[in-house]
Amino acid sequence: LNIIDPITVNVVSAVCNLAQTAYTVTLEISGGDGSYVVTNLAGSLNTSVSPAVFTSNPITTGTPYSYTVSDTGPCPDVVAGPINSPNCSCPASANFVDGSISICQGSTANIELNFPSGSPTFTIDYSDGTNTFTNQGPYVSGDFLQVTPATTTTYTLTGVADQNCNTSASDAITVVVETPPNAGPPVTETFCATNAAFNLSTLVDGAVAETTGNFFDSGGVQVPGNTINLNSSSSDVYTYEVSATVCPSDQALYTITINDPIAISNILVECNSAQTGYIVSFDIEGGDGNYAVAAGGSYAGAILPGSPVSYQSALIPNDTDYSFTISDGSPC
């Protein structure tokens, strides 16, 4: 009398391949009379080991499997299935390190990449909202995707592949493109001194320049409130600077000249030796120095250089009143 144990089958493993496209099932078989036959599942049987080992051919991921193990003995066959496929998902993953970065218009953005899992190196698929770019790389964590958008653009990761498999990815980054600041053209202005407060910002033409900048004197000191006093000591070449977040600042020079009002002094009226007339002379200061003196009659004289400049009239007949108008090229 020969009594044999029933056939026993253990599923040792269901292992996905590296590409995650298929899997292989390994069975251990014992009991029965040892003359095993496996049906309904293609593969190979090794009966030279104990227990016997059956290894299936690759099965397409997502496809369930079944098997029947029988022998020539009286014990019943072992029938199993369908058994679900293991989860053969690609382990590769990718994301952007930052949520947003800023660049100056015309510059290149360096988008840092991170690959938390998978087998290096990696390629990525991404979109800029208009175009799709595939199989970009190879990359590893810490590498940069370089882009040069003309305007603010959001980039979206759509896929990632490692050395073995590919899968979808989902992350986004916004590249903010900043327009370079514009301080406008150089400006030259001349004023007559009044000692009144004057805001230099009123000289900025908003049609050709941004009006949000600050003024600095020739020593690099910021002008408080962009306001100066209109006196000659405030004459200077000021720098108008418009700053930005990531773009370089832009600058324009403002040449400001403030002339003191024209003033005369040391008025001298002297009769000639014959006592037939008299000569008027006086000193002139202020303005821009380019003086012109208009006489009120036919007694125009001459401007005499010096410091200060002086004027001397021609002979004015007795009993003739005199008048003079002094002007220059300044706004005084």
Can you characterise this structure?
There is one protein chain. The protein has 332 residues and is mainly beta. The protein is 0% helix and 49% strand. It contains no helices and 29 strands. The chain has strands at 8-16, 22-30, 37-39, 43-46, 52-56, 59-60, 65-70, 78-83, 95-96, 100-104, 109-114, 122-127, 132-139, 144-147, 153-161, 166-178, 187-192, 197-199, 214-216, 227-229, 236-242, 250-259, 263-271, 277-285, 292-295, 302-304, 309-312, 316-317, 324-327.
Key words describing this protein structure:
332 residues, five-stranded antiparallel beta sheet, five-stranded mixed beta sheet, rod-shaped, 49% strand, mainly beta
Question: How is the secondary structure organized here?
Answer:
Elements lengths: L7 E9 L5 E9 L6 E3 L3 E4 L5 E5 L2 E2 L4 E6 L7 E6 L11 E2 L3 E5 L4 E6 L7 E6 L4 E8 L4 E4 L5 E9 L4 E13 L8 E6 L4 E3 L14 E3 L10 E3 L6 E7 L7 E10 L3 E9 L5 E9 L6 E4 L6 E3 L4 E4 L3 E2 L6 E4 L5
Parallel strand pairs: 10-16, 17-22
Antiparallel strand pairs: 1-2, 2-5, 2-6, 3-7, 4-5, 7-8, 9-11, 11-14, 12-13, 12-15, 15-16, 18-20, 19-21, 21-22, 23-24, 24-27, 24-28, 25-29, 26-27
